[in-house]
Write a structure and sequence with these properties.
Chain lengths: ~140, ~120
Amino acid sequence: MSEENWIWQVDRVIPNDTGMGRQLLDEVLGQLESQQWSRYDIFCVHLAGDEALVNAIVHGNALDASKRIRFRCRIYPKKVCVEIIDEGPGFDPDSLPDPTTASRLGCPSGRGVMLMRAFMSRVEFHDQGNHVVLEKDRGG
Amino acid sequence: MTGYQRLDVNQVGDVTVIRFRDHKIVEDINIQQLGQEMFRLIEVDGRDKLLLNFSSVDFLSSAALGKLITLDKKMKAHGGALKLSNIRPEIYEVFAITKLNRLFDIKDDEADALAAF
């Protein structure tokens, strides 16, 4: 798919604040709604985007108010791409324990990355793990 | 019952039925408050049969799931029973992917859940 045929985009650097991140995510969801994406697709982008934002702000930037989040999104006719970049040290997404094992099922946290991967078409971590790219195919 | 900001709490026989006032359970401060209100029902009021009716909920984050897991632990520690109902399909998918549908007793609707206590 050409990188040029996007319909809508946003690229902003924001404070390390979940409220501001969610405002941007809500803009994305509103655009998807106006372009008549299905309720299910919008739910998937909402879920994965929110988990990625919280990971970046709480774990990546460790709630440090001096750090920033870069939020980029492009909506194409048949896919949406969301990128979230934090200023933290990163992490190895493949080293995360499986939250569905019997010993971890009762843990109250540790499901964010699993949900991103389950509800998006593609999830990639770049750099040291502090740059996540979430892609959802329309109807996929 | 008064004093709840995030919940609607009703008694049906010996079962306490909880509905959520938030359509989206996502903001951390709201999730903390939600947890405190639910925990109070068990730890202060001594309710031992709780049904969470999710009919009004169209989105929740993994942080909200974490609060439900803690609620489940508290209920088990008190020897009570917790059931969930009226979960819309995409949210049920979250429970299924994370295998939390095995941890929680989830029923299709409130009538089924009430009959199962």
